[in-house]
Amino acid sequence: MRILTVCLGNICRSPAAESVLVHKLSQADIDAEVASAGTADYHIGKDAHDLTRKVGHERGYAFTSVADQVTPTHLDQADLVLAMDQSNLENLLAITENDEQRAKIIRFGAFGSTVDDDGIANVPDPYGNPEEAFVDMYNQIEDAAEGLVTAIQDDSLASIQQRYGNQ
Q1: Which residues contact 89 (CB under 8 A, 6 or more apart)?
Q2: Which residues are catalytic, by number?
Q3: How many other C-beta atoms are found inside a 10 Å radius of the C-beta of residue 100?
């Protein structure tokens, strides 16, 4: 399985989600490749944000990728595309070239533990905010990552995609 996490600039949310997913999928012995990209070209080639790395390292996560901008080719190569918020979802849908690409895209919050009660939560962009915003981001990403791992393990991924895809 190939998973792509996507935010705006690819230095905060999506590299955090990439690192968390690599860790949690490995712990669950799920064979998957995870990458990240941004919908904008602001930070291409740069490392993850300092606070993304600091808070992530404190939680045991590693960062190996640099910022990239998502293209339709990324969508073709991925089996699952996780948008961090509604704006990223809309930006992704705008670059899709076919229904197959569109069917792969879902907001990451669809896997959160409160989705049935509260709907799909966006992962807020912590850029420009204090460290606490990055801590909150990781808490939300870890929750959604655990939900995604469970969905893969219990074979409910397709039904979640069908229910919440492109919302």
Answers
A1: 83, 105, 107, 166, 167
A2: 7, 13, 125
A3: 10
